[in-house]
Design brief:
single chain; binds adenosine-2'-monophosphate; binds calcium ion; D-Maltodextrin-Binding Protein, domain 2; 8 helices; five-stranded mixed sheet
Length: 266
């Protein structure tokens, strides 16, 4: 697997921030027993990871723009390129000592995602993709699962957070999907969910109310693994709408139909 210089920059940034998060995750596990909990500590871990990534990426490409979860967007002097970064996706898991979190770094060129890295430092799983070059888990080429019927499928989803999203609407989606599939999973990191679809572990995934940094790298992973990714309107404006439904060609279509089924009248 040959990585471009740009993808290598992204990988190095993810690995370096991953070391920092790993150290802090060890500490978080010790802090669970304190009454105040590790909340402030985790915010600091998050900010530290973003600074590491920002500095690595901007050192390599000082003119590119930078959109990161933890800061205001920085417009680059190069109008064509933008990094889209989530230094810690799955914050709630991290906070609770659950080793299911990730760093997500994407590169956008003229509005199109051309590079993506998702790294889970707790499992040392590094997912990478470049447009036209395929998707990889460490050195292994990825392919989405090939199941064609929903009743054989394990589907990932996101559950709206306390005080956010439309809980009633989600429950209708859940009710419809659980009546059709073999199993439903919720990891708590959208970037990892998408990586799991790319790796063929999940047959599909849906969620709404996401931010661009949760999805940008994962979308490219799924596409480069041969999957289909659309928003809830059946278009490709996932970053704009915050909604996503994906899987292989058949499962994406079938899952979208079930997720968008109208609310039953009785
Ligand atoms: P985060 O951990 O970076 O916040 C899981 O459903 C997804 O929702 C994750 O990608 C997670 O990203 C995001 N998420 C978690 N808490 C959130 C909140 N309060 N508001 C919006 N998104 C959130
Ligand atoms: Ca996130």
């Amino acid at each position: 697997m040959a990585r471009s210089a740009l993808l290598n920059v992204m990988v190095q940034a993810a690995l370096k921030a991953g070391k920092s998060l790993s150290r802090d995750f060890g500490e978080v596990q010790n802090l669970q027993v304190s009454v105040k909990g590790p909340g402030d500590f985790v915010s600091q871990a998050d900010l530290k990871a973003q600074k590491i990534i920002h500095d690595e990426l901007l050192k390599a490409r000082p003119t590119y723009g930078f959109l990161g979860e933890e800061s205001e967007e920085i417009k680059g002097t190069d109008g064509a390129h933008r990094w889209i970064v989530d230094p810690l996706d799955g914050t709630t898991n991290f906070l609770h000592g659950i080793p299911m979190f990730s760093i997500s770094i994407a590169l956008e060129r003229n509005g199109e995602i051309v590079g993506g890295v998702v790294f889970n430092p707790a499992t040392d799983e590094l997912y990478t993709a470049e447009r036209g070059g395929g998707a990889f888990l460490n050195d292994r080429r990825l392919r989405v699962a090939s199941r064609r019927v929903l009743s054989d499928c394990v589907i990932g989803c996101g559950v709206p957070h306390l005080g956010r999203g439309n809980h009633g609407k989600f429950l209708v989606e859940l009710r419809h999907v659980m009546g059709e599939v073999a199993g439903i999973r919720r990891l708590g990191s959208a970037a990892l969910d998408l990586a799991y679809v790319a790796a063929g572990r999940f047959d599909g995934f849906w969620e709404m109310g996401l931010s661009p940094w949760d999805m940008a790298a994962g979308i490219l992973l799924v596409r480069e693994a041969g999957g289909f990714v659309l928003d809830f309107d059946g278009g490709t404006d996932m970053l704009g709408t915050g909604s996503i439904i994906c899987g292989n060609e058949h499962i994406q279509k079938a899952l979208a139909e079930v997720v968008k089924r109208p609310i039953p009248t009785k």
